Amino acid sequence: MYADGSDNVYKDGLVSIIMPCYNGSPFLSETISSVLAQTYQDWELLVVDDGSTDFSLNIVKAYMANDDRITYLTQENSGSASSRNMAIKVSSGRYIAFLDADDIWHPDYLKTMLSKIQEDNCITHAVFYSGYRRMNADCSNPLLSDFSCSGERDYKKLLRHCPIFPSAAIVDRFRVRKNVFFRESLMSLRDDYVFFLDILKQGLKCIGFDDILVDYRMRSDSITGGSKRRMIRPQWNVYHKVLHLNVFKSAWYLCTWALNGMMKYRRKPLLVTS
């Protein structure tokens, strides 16, 4: 019996990497290569194709031919929440790591994070996350300064501000008291945020580190990329319709979220010379 209240037997030390993919062929190879380059090698990679119409399948199969730690799953287009749930349900590792199909892990990402997790003796720490670089679409230049937000946060603090970038986050299943899955009704908007809130709602906490270990492609064509103004309504829906907070609390949390977002994304862009 484990902390999640189930009889599931998860392999201690194994990291299950969850990668949803929808038409990810332009960047998928580079992303998978960043997993293969990890200095920590006890992992399994679960790629879930969310109804892609490009060459994603061919790219994944080429890697699978040389590495049996990679598994390919497929479903009709249903959103990242459904994709992630499919992978979580068949995963075997104690640790769940998330990696979007266009982001890049630095070679020491898993090694550094697992070391910090294993050194952490606080049983209420269940979600761990690092800092990351905010890069242009081809990851050749930074668009904004590196982002990190160290220290621990509980449920109420996460309502005000979520510094967790999914591709830089790892969940320790042994510390989660009850199984948590992504809410598929949210499709691909704020599903990750609600997932972390649902974990912390169990009386648990997340903890961040200043190490910059991930590259985030800030693509204008991604669902959550571009103008952050279009995220206002989904964020409101999280507070008012998903979490069922009253209008006043929802408005207050939305304001704090917006102010933190302005601080996070309106920093002066870096001047990069070629």
UniProtKB/TrEMBL annotation:
Q: Which InterPro entries match?
A: Glyco_trans_2-like, Glycosyltransf_2, Nucleotide-diphossugar_trans
Protein origin, superkingdom: Bacteria
Give a yes or no for keyword Transferase in this entry: yes
Q: What is the lineage of its organism?
A: Bacteria, Pseudomonadati, Spirochaetota, Spirochaetia, Spirochaetales
Q: Which SUPFAM superfamilies match?
A: Nucleotide-diphospho-sugar transferases
Keywords of the record: Transferase
Q: Which organism is it from?
A: Treponema rectale
Which part of the chain is the Glycosyltransferase 2-like domain?
16-126
Q: Does the keyword Translocase apply?
A: no
Single annotated GO MF:
transferase activity
Query: What is the protein name for this chain?
Result: Glycosyltransferase
Q: Which residues form a coiled coil?
A: none
